[in-house]
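Hello forum,

I keep getting stuck at the same step: I have a sequence, I want structure tokens, and every attempt I make locally crashes halfway through. Rather than fight my setup again tonight, could one of you with a working pipeline run this one for me? It's a single chain of 259 residues.
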Amino acid sequence: MTEPATLQIEKLEATVEGKPILKGIDLVVSQGETHALMGPNGSGKSTLANVLMGRPGYKLTAGRVLFKGEDITKLTADQRAQRGLFLAMQYPVEIPGVSVVNFLRTAYKSVKGEDINALEFRKHMKEKMKLLGVEDEMVQRYVNQGFSGGEKKKNEILQLAVLEPEIAVLDETDSGLDIDSLRSVAMGVNELVGPDLGVLLITHYQRMLDYITPDKVHVMMKGRIVKTGGPELAKELEAKGYEGVRDELGLEADATAEV
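Reply #2:
Ran it on my machine without issues. Output:
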């Protein structure tokens, strides 16, 4: 039996423009598990997502990231994607002149390292569209151009479905969504969660977890994970707020802007 893919973060420290943001992160996410990483603005959650995918401008100063036992801290973002790691961005970018279907086919070929003819890819994509309830009209449009917030996030989840990574980092997927869009996107994630996919879901709010039940919840403050628990921890945060956790642990409020 094949061992599940594992993303292992060890004593990770990172800076942005010389400013320390991550201050010793230890976290393990395995294929088949769903982890929620919660925390207030300024805690460093989005910095962690960007460091995991090797985004330029984020400097790792200590620790390492292992994926399937390989140290990936020196790899480029596309090399990490080819290994089976995926990032759904908080602010998806527009790509004028490139249709969603052409973008997805190019991304698939790049990540999988194999050529696929248009008919085969169309069949693969249509299976994922049906699973997620994505209309044909959306994939004919230019990537994220004129998309609503919900459509942008749904397009990110379609990319996740088509590329079939082993571990996905979802950075603030609920950001800017109304309740109907949130439900739609969350249901899409739920369709993909299973033994073949591990998820690190980064969020400010408990509301996303009304639809997605995590195996573990981690609370991040001031660049560190300060508390870990089960799904009940998210309910505790909803009731007490992050201020309650700060008081419980004797922490000061975060003073940095999240990057």
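The mean pLDDT is 91. If your local run keeps crashing, start a new thread with the error log.
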